[in-house]
Design a protein that fits this description.
Blueprint lengths: L1 E2 L11 E2 L8 H9 L10 E14 L9 E2 H7 L3 E8 L4 E6 L15 H18 L4 E6 L7 E4 L4 H10 L2 E2 L9 H12 L5 E6 L8 H6 L7 E8 L1 H5 L5 E5 L6 E5 H25 L3 E6 L4 H16 L1
Parallel strand pairs: 1-12, 6-7, 6-10, 10-11, 11-14
Antiparallel strand pairs: 2-9, 3-5, 4-5, 7-8, 12-13
Helix pairs in contact: 1-3, 3-4, 3-9
C-alpha cells in the first residue's frame, strides 16, 4: 500500500527542511540568479510629489505653482522646483511553511519547502542586484523570521538565513484568519508598485486565503502566486490501493489510485483555475511548478510573471 504523505505529527519544533540535493541554499540561489535578467525597475516620474528633486530653468508654459521666488531673488534667475514620485519597487516574499510543505517523495530532489525557499532566495538575489529591497513574510512554520523590506549587501544573507532556519509546522486549513495574519505586515508596509510573491502548495489553505491575498492588489501592488507541488502530488503517481494521509489535520483516506486519479487532478486544476482567474482579473499572475523541474526554469517563469504584472 502506498501512502502519499507522512504524518503531520511534527512536534513543537516543527519538521526541519529536507534540503536533499537542493543544498546549499545560498550557493544554489546565487547560481540561479546569475544571468536572470530582471530589467530596470526604477520608475521615477518628474512632477508633483513628495520628494524634492531639484531646480531647472523656467520655460514658458511651466506650472507657476512651482515657480521658486527665492531662487529668483538669490540668483536672479527664473527657476521652477521639480519633485520625484518614486514607485515602490520592493519585492515581498510570502512563504508557506505549514506542515504540508514538508512533504518529499522519492521522486523529488527535496521537500516542497526546500524548493520554494530556493526559488524565493534566487528571486531575492535577482531583486537585490537591481537595487530593489526585499521583505519576507511567513504562513505557519516554526522558527520563522519575518523581515522588513531592505536592500544592501547584507540583505541577501538575512533572507537566506531566515529561509534556512525555518521548519514546517501548522495547519492552516482550520484557521480561517491564518492568511490575513501572515499578510498583515505586508499590507501595512508594501506601497504602490511593490510586488508580492506567494509561495505555497495551495493544497490546505483556508477558504479565505484567495480573497485575502487578492485584496493586496489594491493600491497598485502586483501579485504573483507560485504553486509548488511534489511530483507525486502533481500526478498522484501511485498505482493500486493507497492510503492518503493529510499533512494538515487528521484525515486519512484509503482508496484505489486509478479510480480517484481523474477526480484528484480535476480538483488540483480547479484550485489553479480559481486562483489564476481571480489574480488575472486584478493584474496578477499564477505560476505552476513541480519540484523535479529545474529551479532555474521556475525562477525565470516568476521573473517573467513579475514583469507582466508590473506592465
Amino acid at each position: 500500500m502506498a501512502e502519499l504523505r507522512p504524518s503531520s505529527r511534527s512536534g513543537k519544533d516543527g519538521i526541519p527542511i529536507d534540503w536533499g540535493s537542493l543544498a546549499p541554499l545560498r550557493l544554489r540561489a546565487r547560481t540561479l540568479a546569475e544571468g536572470v535578467y530582471a530589467g530596470g525597475h526604477r520608475s521615477v516620474r518628474k512632477g508633483p510629489g513628495v520628494e524634492f528633486g531639484g531646480h531647472r530653468p523656467y520655460v514658458p508654459g511651466d506650472d507657476l505653482r512651482f515657480f521658486d521666488r527665492r531662487a529668483l531673488l538669490r540668483h536672479d534667475r527664473m527657476m521652477v522646483r521639480e519633485f520625484e514620485t518614486e514607485t515602490d519597487r520592493a519585492l515581498w516574499l510570502c512563504v508557506d511553511a505549514t506542515a504540508s510543505m514538508a512533504y518529499r517523495s522519492s521522486r523529488a530532489p527535496g521537500a516542497k519547502l526546500a524548493y520554494g525557499a530556493l526559488v524565493a532566495a534566487a528571486l531575492a538575489r535577482v531583486a537585490l542586484s537591481t537595487g530593489d529591497p526585499v521583505g519576507l513574510a511567513w504562513l505557519g512554520g516554526r522558527g520563522t523570521l519575518p523581515l522588513p523590506a531592505s536592500s544592501g549587501r547584507e540583505a541577501f544573507d538575512r533572507v537566506a538565513g531566515a529561509l534556512e532556519g525555518a521548519a514546517a509546522a501548522g495547519d492552516a486549513s482550520t484557521d480561517e484568519a491564518a492568511m490575513e495574519r501572515a499578510l498583515a505586515p505586508v499590507a501595512r508596509r508594501a506601497r504602490r508598485g511593490a510586488v508580492i510573491v506567494l509561495v505555497s502548495d495551495f493544497v490546505d489553505l483556508p477558504e479565505r486565503a484567495l480573497s485575502a491575498f487578492s485584496a493586496l492588489a489594491a493600491g497598485g501592488r502586483s501579485l504573483v502566486a507560485l504553486r509548488v507541488l511534489d511530483p507525486n502530488e502533481a500526478d498522484l503517481g501511485f498505482s493500486g490501493h493507497v492510503r492518503l494521509r493529510a499533512s494538515e489535520g487528521d484525515v486519512v483516506v484509503e482508496t484505489d489510485a486509478e479510480e480517484v486519479r481523474a477526480i484528484y487532478r480535476e480538483r488540483l486544476a480547479g484550485i489553479a483555475e480559481r486562483w489564476s482567474t481571480e489574480l488575472s482579473g486584478r493584474g496578477g499572475r499564477w505560476v505552476e511548478s513541480v519540484t523535479d523541474q529545474p529551479p532555474a526554469d521556475v525562477v525565470r517563469a516568476v521573473v517573467r510573471a513579475v514583469a507582466e504584472a508590473r506592465a
